[in-house]
Amino acid sequence: MNLIATCFVLGLAGGGEGARILGLFPIPGKSHLSVTSPLMHALAKKGHDVTVFVPFHTGFNASNYREITYDSIPLDKHGNIMDYLNMNIFLAHIFLYYMGTLTTEMALNTTGAQALIKSEEKFDIIVMEQFFNEAFLAYVHKFKCPFVLISAFGPTATINGIFGNSAPYSYVPSEFLPFGDRMTFFERLENTIANLYFDGSRKYYYMPQQQALANKYLSDTGKEVPSLEEIESQADLILLNSHHIFSTPRPYMENMKNVAGMHLKPSKPLPLDLQQYMNSSKNGVILFSLGSAMQSILMPDDKIKALKGAFERLPYDVLWKWENDTMENKPKNVRIGKWLPQSDILTHPNLKLFITHGGISSLMETVYHEVPIVGIPLFGDQRRNIKIAESKGYADYVDILTLTENQVYNAVMNVATNPKYRDNVKKVSAYWKGEMNHPLDVAVHWVEYVLKNGGAKLLKATVTEQNFIQYFLLDVGFAILLLLILTCILIRKTFRLLCRKSRPKMTSKKNN
Ligand SMILES: *[C@@H]1O[C@H](CO)[C@@H](O)[C@H](O)[C@H]1NC(C)=O
Ligand SMILES: *[C@@H]1O[C@H](CO)[C@@H](O)[C@H](O)[C@H]1NC(C)=O
Ligand SMILES: *[C@@H]1O[C@H](CO)[C@@H](O)[C@H](O)[C@H]1NC(C)=O
Ligand SMILES: *[C@@H]1O[C@H](CO)[C@@H](O)[C@H](O)[C@H]1NC(C)=O
To answer: In the listed set 435, 453, 473, which residue is the last one of a domain according to the structure?
Structure first.
């Protein structure tokens, strides 16, 4: 925590050249903005002239910081996301494509987006989120400046593709699969098929939709926007919200930087009533929250009933992020709050454990504050995040699809009473903190590196310039094969020649 405070002060004192920075973060999800906006705020604090395109105001004000917002409909208002719990990853990806196209069009069909594409402004660098919003790459083409991508997750198949990063399917599990790095035959099979499917469906099904949006809304000259994939491959660098303790060790290109935890802040004192509540709990408090984006009131009724039943039996108090003023049949030991200062609650010594959906930012806060976990993941990367936490010994995994009252009760009692969970999270936390420069400082450094050098040519592997034949060495393989065949033929010919020459001698011997 001290480390963070110090870094903020250093950041403020550092000053800057005052470069003009454009940030493009159109995804209408709080969990995304909570990763990207700390970086943009930090760059403004360093004196850069920052303009960001965001779905709603982030609550930061400065004279050198401007927000272009649009009338966004938050992701969770597009129907109940809980209805998709059963969805397999193949359909879930189609759903993501659908949401991506929908929200991208919503963001582009606005006066802010239109004014920006016609604007005469100049920018020195663009920082853009890599998610389902690729039409925004047209701004990179328009402003013709270096650009840095940023991801709210770790390296996905798409990101590996953009940067030409090797991620062998044999030991690098997809972010969307709940696998570790020791995969069984069937897990490797699923990992391979899933990765090939992600790549193929993106290229042939999804990207043409984004290209059409770019052509429709962002063609300031009336001409078509160049291939978005072409623009994307020019990315100088990517900042990733990941770290190997939340993932698995794997290869990274020089221009892929892990900056997990940019959103971590020094904790603030809790509001007085919460302080009193936490202080006075006799046996300790359990926090239950599905994060800022997911609403627990939307969970299926039978799941809510099971959770209430389990909580009622606990000897602990339960603080539940519940997005309504009232809760039917609320157990006596449950206190509800529509909004809870999660990060600050996590620092309270009377907190026993956190029941979380395992969103990566929540998980980082939890590990940072050394709190053990009961994980009830819902989708996306959450299942994998909790699986990895479980393998590191600081979490119990409860499957939302088969969740019962007893399961929840047993998992909570187990994690709350077995000291192994807290010991392990302390170990992981110490390991992470021990090796981290503050990630926000690292991220600011790399953005300024690209600014200073007008790109990141020295970090960029030439793999993105190679074609399929060169990358897989098909030409070299063919040449070697040819050489082998020629050698064989030559050896055979020579052998035959020698045999023929020696044959008469043998026959003459026989004749003797
Ligand atoms: C930022 O400015 C807006 C309007 O100018 C104001 O309503 C808001 O309270 C300010 N926020 C902060 C954190 O100062
Ligand atoms: C774009 O915005 C205009 C004006 O707000 C609206 O009439 C139109 O339906 C929108 N188009 C799409 C495809 O959302
Ligand atoms: C809660 O406990 C802490 C530490 O014991 C103390 O500093 C704080 O004042 C207490 N808060 C309230 C509202 O009692
Ligand atoms: C909040 O609870 C009340 C009373 O149970 C209910 O009528 C209302 O529909 C709930 N609101 C939401 C958004 O679920």
So the answer is: 435
Ligand 1 proximity of 66 Cβ (cutoff 6 Å): no
Q: How far does the chain reach from its first CA to its final CA, in angstroms?
A: 101
Q: Model confidence over 32-49: pLDDT tens digits?
A: 999 999 999 999 999 999
Task: Determine the distance separating the centroid of ligand 4 and the alpha carbon of 324, expressed in angstroms.
Answer: 6
Is residue 295 domain-shared with residue 335, that is, in the same domain?
yes
Question: CA–CA separation, 228 vs 211, rounded Å?
Answer: 6
Q: How many CA atoms lie within 13 A of 237 on its CB side?
A: 29
275 lines ligand 3 (CB under 6 A): yes
Residue 512 lies in a domain: no
Q: Which residue's CA is the nearest one to ligand 4's atom 4?
A: 326
| Domain extent for 125 | 3-261+437-465
244: tokens are 């190997």
User: Per the structure, how many domains does the chain have?
Assistant: 2
pTM score, whole prediction: 0.89
Q: Does residue 186 form part of some domain?
A: yes
Nearest CA to ligand 2 atom 6: 109
Torsions phi, psi for 291 (to 5 deg): 85, 180
Q: 201 CA distance to ligand 2 centroid (A)?
A: 28
269-310 pLDDT, tens digit each: 999 999 999 999 999 999 999 987 788 998 989 999 999 999
